[in-house]
Amino acid sequence: MSKAFKRIIIKLSGEGLAGETNDHFHEPTINRIAKEVAEVIANGTEVGIVVGGGNFWRGRDAKPEMDKVKAHQIGMLGTIMNGLYLSEAFRLAGIPAVVMTPFDVNGFTQKFSMEDARKYMAQKTAVIFAGGTGHPFFSTDSIVALRACELSADAVLYAKSIDCVYTADPKKDASARRYKTVPYETVVQNRLDVADITALSLTMQHDIPSVVFALNKPNAIVIASKGGGLCQMSNLLFWVFLHSPMTIVERHTHDIKDFPTARDGEPEGVDATVSEGWRDLKVKNDTDKTFQIGIVFDAENIYAALF
Which pLDDT belongs to residue 267? Predict the structure, then answer.
């Protein structure tokens, strides 16, 4: 049976909190986010959230004569306001939440500690990371990647206005093609509009996959938290192969610990991630038998057996 991600970092933009309005916040959107995050946590996934501040202020939009450091600091404060508002929405929805910042905001937030953040997440508390990195010239995508690496997240989930990665901006280029999966190298080299290149490079180095999803779709966060369809399938197939006489030739992991310990010789973390043109799951049948894989789906899970 395929498992969801165990620990995720969700990136919510400030504009996403405003929905399709010109207001700072769109209550129906925020209430839906809170409801979906509650369901994700109830399903057993630990959740961290990085929130932007674009509904209040964007440092790059400051007047040319304005000091750039001050402009970025104003943006950091905007993310803190969003974090506090989101935490209150979570509280009203029955979700324990804590706002953590990389600097002291006495009486308002808690200063970030990796140990405390992990403790909160394990206790089914939503941890909201605000204030960016605490330094100017870094985007909120940077803190997404940094917290994902520090907290050993299984994936980063980017809430967008589009549901995947395209070869170009589909709003500007009608010929833009949709990627089902795409290697980090392609995104970085072609500078595809997914996230900050520095952030993507960091998660690439640490083998943390990124999932892009459309926030405005119903149940979007819940669906994205269950992992990409390819990874769910590869996890399950790897588990099946472990219990067969076949030899695993190639396999890559993103350190999900949801399966029991692998057999001798297999790396820690019994999962398998795949990506088109980048990573494969390969097995070799050294026996004189022929095997057939049976796969069945229901509304919640994927099941497989070897015959």
Answer: 45
Where does the chain hold its CATH 3.40.1160.10 domain(s)?
7-225
pLDDT in tens, 152-161: 999 999 998 7
Interatomic CA distance for residues 35 and 78, integer angstroms: 23
Q: Tell me the pTM.
A: 0.75
What single-letter amino acid sits at 195? A
**Which superfamily, per CATH, for 7-225?**
Acetylglutamate kinase-like (3.40.1160.10)
- In whole angstroms, what is the distance from residue 220 CA to residue 43 CA? 15
